[in-house]
Amino acid sequence: xxxxxLAVLALALAxxxxxxxxxxxxxxxxxxxxxxxxxxxxxxxxVRLIGDGxxxxxxxxxxxxxxxxxxxxxxxxxxxxxxDTGTIETLGAYGTCPGKDLRVxxxxxxxxQLLFGTLEGATQMTFYAYTLTGLEGDATQAPRASALIGDxxxxxxxxxTTVAELQADAGEALELLPAEEPLGPAFRLxxxxxxxxxxxxxxxxxxxxxQAGEGCGE
Length: 218
Description:
By secondary structure, this protein is mainly beta. The chain has helices at 2-6, 67-78, 163-170; strands spanning 48-50, 53-55, 60-62, 83-84, 91-92, 95-96, 103-107, 112-117, 126-133, 144-149, 153-157, 174-180, 184-189, 196-200, 207-213. The protein is globular and about 40 Å long.
C-alpha cells in the first residue's frame, strides 16, 4: 500500500493533512522552450536521485524548487509521467502529506513518485519528496538513487540492492533501523547530501523502497 511506502519518512518529519482526495484538473505550465516540448520516449537513466532532489544532466532539481520551474526539466529528461494526479487533497492514497494540497507525478508505472505541494508559508507548489519503489511499476525503467560517501566515493543503489552491498559501499554512513510495524526493517543513509531513507525486504534482505525529502505519514 502507498502509505507504507511513504511512511518511512515520518522517521524524520511528520506530515499533516485532512480530507479525502478529489482530483482537480492539472495546472498547465506555459512558456516551455521549444527544445523541451518533445519528451524523450523513456526516462533518462543517467538521472540520479540524491538526498537533496534529482540530479539531471541540466541541473539539480532540489527540494523547494517550484513545480513551474521543475516541470520543464522533468519533461525533458524523464518524459511524460505515467500518471499525473493533478491537485488532490493531502490525505489519501499517498498517506497524510504536509501542506494544503498535493500533486504527484509518477514514472515507470509508479516505481518513481515525485511529490509536490503548497507547504506552510508558501504560495506555490514546490517539490518536497520522492519515492523509488520496487513494489509498484518497473523500477528498472526509473533512475537509481545515488549516495556520496566522503569526498568522492559515489555509489548507485535502489530496489533489489542487497543489505550486504549497502554495508560494503556505505560503511558507517548506513544505519539499519529496527523492524517496526507497519514498515518492517528499514535503513537510513547519511551521506554528503541531506540523506536517504528506505525499507528492506528483510533485515539481511534487499532494498524495497528508497525515499528522500519531507515525507508523508500514515
